[in-house]
Design goal:
The chain is of the alpha+beta class. Helices cover 14% and strands 17% of the residues. The strands form 2 sheets. It has a two-stranded antiparallel ribbon. The chain has a two-stranded antiparallel ribbon with strand order 2-3. The radius of gyration is 13 Å and the shape is globular.
Length: 71
C-alpha cells in the first residue's frame, strides 16, 4: 500500500509527477523488473509512505503508518 500524500496537503506538494516507478527489491532484482504506473492528472505527492505487502489490508495499512517518509 502506498500513500502519496499522507498529510492530505493541498499545498507544498511536488508538481508534475505523472507516474510511479516501483522495483520490489532493489538489492536483488534488476532494474529491468521495474514496473511503471501512471498517476492521474493533478495527483498530489508529499512525503509518500510505502507499506509492505501483507496478507490483509489492515496489516498493510499498519505497515505504511509506521514507515519512514522519503521526499
Amino acid at each position: 500500500m502506498i500513500d502519496l500524500d499522507p498529510s492530505g496537503a493541498t499545498a507544498g506538494t511536488a508538481p508534475g509527477i505523472d507516474e510511479m516507478n516501483v522495483l520490489a527489491n532493489g538489492d536483488h532484482m534488476p532494474s529491468a523488473e521495474t514496473r511503471n504506473f501512471p498517476l492521474g492528472s493533478g495527483t498530489k505527492v508529499l512525503k509518500p509512505k510505502l507499506g509492505l505487502y501483507s496478507a490483509t489490508v489492515a496489516r498493510a495499512v499498519a505497515s505504511m503508518q509506521q514507515a519512514d517518509t522519503r521526499s
